Amino acid sequence: MTAPLLVTTDAVDARLRREVIAGLKATPRTLPATLFYDARGAALFEAICHLPEYYPTRTEQEILSAHAGDLADLIGPRAAIIEPGSGAATKVRQLLRALDNPIAYVPVDVAEEQLARVSAERAREFPALRVRAVLGDYRDAIPLPPLPGDARRVVFFPGSTIGNLQPHEAAHFLRDIAAVVGPDGGLVLGVDRRKDPRILHAAYNDAAGVTADFNLNVLTRLNREFRGTFHRAAFRHRAFFNDAESRIEMHLEAVSPQTARVEHLELSFAAGATIRTEVSYKYDRARLDAVAAAGGWRVVECFTDAKNWFWVCWLVPVGDTSETSL
C-alpha cells in the first residue's frame, strides 16, 4: 500500500478570501462555488448525489459501468490518473479497475478531511497504485507529485464540474490541463447535456431540501471563517434554469430587507435580493466542441446513457491555442 501524500498550500485560503470579497462587492453579487465544500458541505453533497431527483451521479455511473472498458482502451496502459476536484472519488474506481496496469492516482481537492480519507481508501483498494493526494483548488497551478516518466498523464474530470465554470473559465482551465498532461495525454470529461428544464429544476430543488441545506451552509461558513453576521433563516434557496445562457443558477435570496457584514465589508439586502452561489452549464455538442477547441482539445468520442441526459467524453490535446477564444 502506498501512503497518501498531502501537499498543502496557503494559496487555497488566500484565493478563497479574495474571491469572497470580490464577489460580494460585484454586481450581481456572487460567491465562489468552492465555498460549498467545508466538511459539512462535502457530506451534504454526497447526500445530494443519492437523491432520486439528482440524476447526474447515477447517470454518469451508468455510463462508466457500460463504457469503462472502452475508455481504458482509449487511454492505454501505464496511465497516471489525475482527478481535479476529486470529492468522494467513487467514480474513478470503475476506471481504475478497467485500466491496464495504472501506475498512479492523484486526487486534488480543497476538502482536507475528505481528501485524506478517500485517498487512503483508494490506496487500500489498489495496493499496487501510487496514490498521492494534493490539497488545493484545482483552478490554481498546483505542483503535482513526481510521476513516472513513462506514464501517460490522463485527467479524470467527471460530475459535470466543467459546467460550474463560465465558458471562458472552462477554456482557460482546459488549457491548463493540456499543459499538465502534455501532448500525449488525455482527458475523460463528464458533461451534463441540455434537457427538459423540468428535469433540471427538480434536480436542484429536491423535495427533501438537501440542496437548500447545502446552499444555505455557505452562510454558516461565512459566519465561521469570514467573521460574517448573516442570519441563515433570513435567506432561502433559489435555483432555476436560465435558458438563454443554458445554465442552472443557484442563489441565496433575502426574504426581507437586512444588513450583514463579512470581514470589513458591510452589505445591504432588499427583500428578494440574491447572491449567486453557483452556475451549472448544460451542453449540446456544438457548445462542447467550441469550449474544447478554445481549451486546446479535440473531442474524440462521447458515450451517453439510454435517456441521452449525460456524456462521458474522451478528449486529446491538439496543440497551442493561444490565439483561440470563445
Key attributes of the depicted protein:
alpha/beta; disordered C terminus; three-stranded antiparallel sheet; single chain; Rossmann fold; 36% helix; 9 helices; eight-stranded mixed sheet; 326 residues; globular
SSE map:
Elements: H1 11-25, H2 39-48, H3 55-75, E1 79-84, H4 91-98, E2 104-109, H5 112-125, E3 130-131, E4 134-135, E5 152-157, H6 167-181, E6 186-192, H7 197-204, H8 210-225, E7 235-242, E8 247-254, E9 258-262, E10 265-269, E11 274-281, H9 285-294, E12 297-304, E13 310-317
Parallel strand pairs: 1-2, 1-5, 2-3, 2-4, 5-6
Antiparallel strand pairs: 6-13, 7-8, 8-11, 9-10, 12-13
Helix pairs in contact: 2-8, 3-4, 6-9
Protein name: L-histidine N(Alpha)-methyltransferase
GO molecular function, one term: L-histidine N(alpha)-methyltransferase activity
Domain Histidine-specific methyltransferase SAM-dependent: 17-315
